[in-house]
Amino acid sequence: MAERAHEHYDVLIAGAGPAGLAAARTAASHGARVCLIDAQVQPGGQVWRHDIASPLPRAARRVIDSLSNRIDFLAQTQVLMAQERSLLVDGPQGARRLSYGALVLATGARELLLPFPGWTLPGVTGAGGAQALAKQGWPMTGKRVLVAGSGPLLLAAAATLRAHGARVLGILEQASQGAVLGFAASLVRWPGKAAQALALRARLLGIPYRTGTLVRAALGEDRLRTVEIEGPRGVERIECDHLAVGYGLVPNVELAQLLGCQLLRTGAHAQVAVDESLRTSVEHVYAAGEVCGIGGRDTALIEGEMAGHHAVGASVAAAALQSHRRHARAFAERLRQSFALRPRVHALAVEETLICRCEDVPLSALQGFTSLREAKLATRCGMGACQGRICGTALAELGVFPTGGHDDDGRRPPLFPIRLATLAESFSIDSQGVHS
Ligand SMILES: Cc1cc2nc3c(=O)[nH]c(=O)nc-3n(C[C@H](O)[C@H](O)[C@H](O)COP(=O)(O)OP(=O)(O)OC[C@H]3O[C@@H](n4cnc5c(N)ncnc54)[C@H](O)[C@@H]3O)c2cc1C
């Protein structure tokens, strides 16, 4: 593809996970000119992140290989700003403006990381974070790893870590035994999921899975040495080299917010509100996959395909998938109920616990503010490199502020910290012509 600073596409898709990939190949199958962008090096999103030690699963290969020459894939490319029917993006080729006939938001989800004493020690990461590190080659061989938090991602992370040579000492699930057994029994409605769960359990044979158990503290001077846990057996200490702890997923709604799309709150977190046709509240903008609510890979694939049809006006083809979508979303709802966080999880951080790790802001510094916005102005909480993606989300979950933890006054551009050179480039782009 010739590198141009301003390009027009029939369909532009942000995010190349299962939802974005399915949307791209579907829209292209109708003859549309499609562009797919992703911040990662390769397409696949979170679940199909490339693993240096093993080939991609067949299902992933099938979807990725089906990307045709009608699709431009822009890797390592971030969306920075949104304007009328166009996005300003920054990637290896510099800043570019991409205008579109229709935009599909498929920006997925990130891990919910919650603060507890010691969570910033070297050797402590998210569960999905540890999985991603292992897949990218971070040495795990022989390391004693404890996996903790909540939800099925713990099993997937533990299986990956074991495959990379880690000694997984145990999986600690905060949900009660009753909740987990109830969830397992309900899988008869989703035989594909039941098969996936059984296959995962087989890969985890011999690893203790303890319910109703959570991490109270990570201990060590310079790095993690010991983990303190609590559960039905009381408080225990376990020596380990790595703690991988994650409390489920939250949708990446920041780009949708920037575009002015209406959000829907489910508990402490927001997802993009869509109608039956996956239309957002902003004209010509659709959304699919986990950005519309945590739903797993199958939901993302179905919604991506539907959004790809809708984006080119093929609504009859999309309607045929509606019942599959409802069935897949019902699974998501079951998942959400089964792994709801217990109040104890919200009470682990103490006064000295750092909440904003980018700007070193402890919990004690956030007392007395009524909103994240107020706290941000006074303490710099949420003003670091992650732009509040970790601490803002955690604060919303913990319910620290009476008004909730979110910046409900919308997102201001840029979405990510930006180089001054990129900003300068963006001004000159607008004076150039559009190519299509
Ligand atoms: C860390 C992690 C690990 C996971 N591991 C597993 C697993 O092992 N097994 C499993 O079944 N499920 C796993 N999941 C859940 C899985 O991600 C989802 O079920 C499914 O992949 C959702 O697909 P999606 O296309 O909606 O989003 P995702 O797969 O999350 O893809 C979204 C993509 O959008 C890109 N993106 C987001 N914002 C921007 C932006 N502003 N600019 C450019 N690109 C952007 C991201 O880089 C990402 O590639 C994991 C989730 C996470 C967060």
UniProtKB/TrEMBL annotation:
Keyword terms, alphabetized: Oxidoreductase
Tree of life domain: Bacteria
Domain FAD/NAD(P)-binding, first and last residues per copy: 9-298
Chain ranges passing through the membrane: none
Name under which the protein is recorded: NADPH-dependent 2,4-dienoyl-CoA reductase/sulfur reductase-like enzyme
Organism: Pseudoxanthomonas sacheonensis
Record lineage: Bacteria, Pseudomonadati, Pseudomonadota, Gammaproteobacteria, Lysobacterales
